[in-house]
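Predict the 3D structure for this chain.
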Amino acid sequence: MFVAFALGIGAFATTRDLGWLSPFGIESESHDSQVIHAIERTQEVSLLSLGVQGITNEKRCAEAFGKCIPGSAEQVFLQYNFNAKLGIDGAQVEVTKSGENSFRVSIPDFTFIGYEKPTFKVATEDAGVLEWFTPDIDKVEMINKILDSKARTKYLASNSALLKDQTEVFYNSLITSIDRDAVTTYEFRS
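Done. Predicted structure below.
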């Protein structure tokens, strides 16, 4: 009896692996091809890393005569978390000697360098019984709004004073490591 049970389990596993259990089986295949066609050396100086986290939502509903159809609403809450790197293009920084032990440092506009460790997940979705009337909410579009140029500009503007302070700390430490008595003045082009 045990042998028959073991043979039955083995036969079931084999037919499952071969896809014979369902006459309409499911076949799945995926491919990924990637070519790195350029490597660019950069001299970006990261001055700040902002830990950004939040939740955003979008709501849609089908409309008739300019009014939302009851029960057709769909709402998505998307939770996000990432580090935003802010800094400058170090190749555009100009350090000139302005006198004995004094230097003038000209700093270019601050720039958004990039994102690090981004995570996005749907916190919750809420849909009415007639939500199939409503076009699906595009979650990729929601992510793109979080990471768009307006958001990057906002991060730079709201941290301008801190970026200037960190720039002075960074370049003062470099210059005074060469000349301990150095006095520096800064010119921010932004």
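The first helix runs from residue 2 to 18.
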